[in-house]
Amino acid sequence: MNEMFLLKLGEMVLKGANRRSFEDRLKSNLRRRLAGFGNFHIYLTQSTVYVEPEDDNCDIESAWEACGRVFGVNSMCRCRPCEKNLDAIFEAVRSYLWEDLCAAGSFKVESKRADKAFPLGSIQISQEIGGRIAEAEPALKVDVHHPAYTVYVEIRDHAAYVHGPAQPGAGGLPTGVGGKAALLLSGGIDSPVAGYMIAKRGAELECIHFFSYPYTSELAKQKVLDLAAIIARYCGRMTVDIVSFTQIQEAIRDNCPEEYFTIIMRRFMMRISERIAQDHGALSLVTGESLGQVASQTMQAMAVTGAVVSMPIFQPLIGMDKEEVVTIARKIETLETSILPYEDCCTVFTPKHPKTKPTLEGTLKAESGLDVEQLVNDALSQIEKVTVYPDR
Ligand code: ATP
Ligand code: MG
Which domain does 382 fall in, by range? Predict the structure, then answer.
C-alpha cells in the first residue's frame, strides 16, 4: 500500500467518559462519507484515525477531499507507511517526498516516537534521517529554525509513517454527537452558514424551507435543495421539509396591517418549524439572523418572533457582520449558489415601512384576524419531503 491518511482528532480528545462515543461516531461518519469512493479500512488508535485504501480501485483524491469536510478532525495528512527501521523510513522519504523536498531548498526532520519500544529517540531519528537526506542531495540545506519544508516521521504501533506538512481538518465535533437541530433554510447567504456552524458543533441537521408558489418559482426551490446538498457535504444526508406558505402569506396580506406583514409571517415560520422539529426529534431551531441587519432582526422583532415557540432558537450569526458571514459562505462554497437572483418568500408582500420595534401586544392585535391554528395545521398537512445527499 502506497499512501494512506492520518486524521488527528480535535477537541474531542478532551472529553472524559464520552470520548468513546465521540470516536465511534467519527468513525461511522467517515465510513459513510467514504463509502462511495472505494473500500477503505478505517480505524482509530492513539488519538488518530487511520484511513487505508484496501485496493487500487479507491478514488484517493475524492476521499481526501471528503475527509477534509468531516467534523471532529483537527489536522490531516497524507502519508506513506513503512517498516519501523531507518532504511525503510529513508526509502519512504526518497520515494514519496523527494520532489517536494528538493524543490523547497531547505528542510528539517521532525520525528515522533509513539512506540516507546523503538530503539532510537525522536531526536536521534531526526538526526539520522536528516543526515541521510543531506548526504543524498547536497544542495538541500538543513535549517531547523525556518525550514522551507518539514519531513515528519512518526513511529507508531504498527508501522512508521512519513509525511510532509499537515493541513487543517474541518474542526468541530463529529456530526450527531450534539443532538438534532432543525435549520430554517432560505435561499439567502446567511442560513446555510448558520446551518454549517451548528453542524460543526456536532448537531445533526434537518432543513425546513418555506415556499410561496407561484410568487416564488421552482428555480428558487431548486436553489434551496442545491444549498442543502452543499451543506450535506459536511454533515451528510438530510431531509428538507418544504412547506407551502402561499395560503398563509395571502391570509396575512388580506387580514393584517401592512407594517406587521413580515413579523407575523416570521411568527408563522417559527410555529410551523417547531412542530416539524418535534416530529423529527429535533431539540432546537436554527436561523441566520444577525442583530440589526434588517427590520425583522432587531431585538424587539426577534423577541416577538421567538415568543410563539418554547424550543430554543439558535442564531449562530447573531454577532457577525455580513462580510464575516460572506467569508464563511465562500469557504464552504455556498456563496455562489446563494447569490443566484431568485426571489425568496420573504420578499413577497414586503411592507414599505416594516415595524422595527414591534411589541407583543401590538403584534397579537395585528394578527387577531387570523385563524392561526387552522393555518398552521393546513400548512403542516401539505409538506413535501425531499431527501438530499452530499453532491460530492
Ligand atoms: P438568509 O440570508 O438566510 O435568507 P436574511 O438575512 O435574508 O437571511 P431574513 O429574511 O430576515 O434574513 O430571514 C431570517 C432567517 O429566517 C433566515 O436566516 C432563515 O433562517 C429564516 N428564513 C427566511 N426565509 C426563509 C424561508 N423561505 N424558508 C426557511 N427559512 C427562512
Ligand atoms: Mg433571506
Answer: 180-388
Give the domain-ending residue among 168, 199, 218: 168
Query: Tell me: the pLDDT tens digits for 353-388?
Result: 999 999 999 999 999 999 999 999 999 999 999 999
Pocket test for ligand 1, best of 185, 189, 190 (most atoms within 8 A of CB): 190
Whether the Cβ atoms of residue 362 and residue 301 lie closer than 8 Å to each other: no
Nearest to 104 by CA among 165, 162, 61, 160: 165
Which residue owns the Cα nearest ligand 1 atom 24?
A: 186
**C-alpha cell recorded at residue 126:** 531526526
Residue 1 has pLDDT above 60, yes or no: no
Strand partners, 106: 141
Q: Which ligand is nearest to the CA of 194?
A: 1
Q: Which residues line ligand 1 (CB under 6 A)?
A: 184-186, 188-191, 208-210, 287-289, 293-294, 296-297, 344-346
DSSP alpha helix (H) spans, 137-189: none
Give the dihedral of Cα atoms 250, 182, 194, 379; nearest 10 deg: -10
Q: Does the residue 175 lie in any domain?
A: no
pLDDT per position as a tens digit, 209-244:
999 999 888 999 999 999 999 999 999 999 999 999
Query: 369 CA to middle of ligand 2, Å?
Result: 26
| Number of domains comprising the chain | 2
Ligand 2 midpoint to CA 344 (Å)? 6
Are 249 and 161 contained in the same domain? no
Q: Measured over all CA atoms, what is the biggest interatomic distance in the chain, rounded to whole angstroms?
A: 86
Residue nearest to atom 7 of ligand 1 (CA): 188
Does residue 40 lie within any of the structural domains?
A: yes
Q: Which residues does 284 contact at the CB level (< 8 Å), separation at least 6?
A: 179, 181, 182, 203, 277, 311, 312, 313, 314
Ligand nearest to the CA of 297: 1
End-to-end CA distance of the chain: 25
Quickly state the pLDDT bin for 250 (edges 50, 70, 90).
Answer: very high
